[in-house]
# Entry
Amino acid sequence: MPANTLTEMILGYGVILGILLLYVLSLILRFRRAKTNQHDFSENSHTSSH
Amino acid sequence: MILDKKPSFLTFLDVLSGLMVLGALILILFFTPTELTMGPVQKVFYFHVASAWGGMLSFLLAAAAGAGYLVTRKVRWDWLSLSAVEVGLVFGLIAILSGMIWAQPIWNTWWVWDPRLTTTAIMELIYLAYFILRSGLDTPETKARLGAVYVIVSVISVPLTFLSIRLFRTIHPVVIAASGSESAFSMSPRMLLAFITSLVVFTVLIADLIWHRYRLAQLQNPIQEEAN
# Structure
């Protein structure tokens, strides 16, 4: 009879998918921040050129 | 420089990788047999090996991109190298943690200083140090140049990790071995199908994530982009 390791299997896939989701989330957040910074940068350069 | 509009192929790749991960999960959870001794935890194997594969593939790509930078001095190669290292680290971490969870009920310990586990941990630390190295350097040009040299030298840890279970005595199973080999990991046809599917899925997934990370690097470095 196979060992009862269902909890470990769920934990394993939870960790795998959890880390993947966290990484995707970090990419989205960093992308948004970089876009905001770029927008601020272009506005500032536009203002200083006048 | 304003970042180009998101390519439609990248959107397609996002949807495809999401669907493929979901499909592979269904295949693993509902269509692969439960291993007779280890029970359900053995199913972690499919994504565990695929993560290790994804990590190693990313590190190889990082080295190739590093060489590309040294030859052409185009910053785009540095961004690709940086992106591949970051994604490789994520997949390496997944491989280590999922392996520990699998090992706990089977080896009765979370961790042993086995050659495969040790070389994997060293490989992960080597690539983690890549970011420490870059953060300690001043100019983007120095970061790119020394980073490229670093990833080219570090890539030796990839074949060393892959071959460690063949070169040294180990308790880690050998998944890919010659047929009939004593150490070969025997799989039923449905297990083999899920295994190969997982490798393909993770290959598509790392391509998708590296592309996104590359676009982020492009967005974070508008001045460098214009200089090239």
Q: What stands out?
A: Residues 55 and 91 of chain B are 5 Å apart (CA to CA). The longest helix of chain B spans residues 75-107. Chain B has a mean pLDDT of 91.
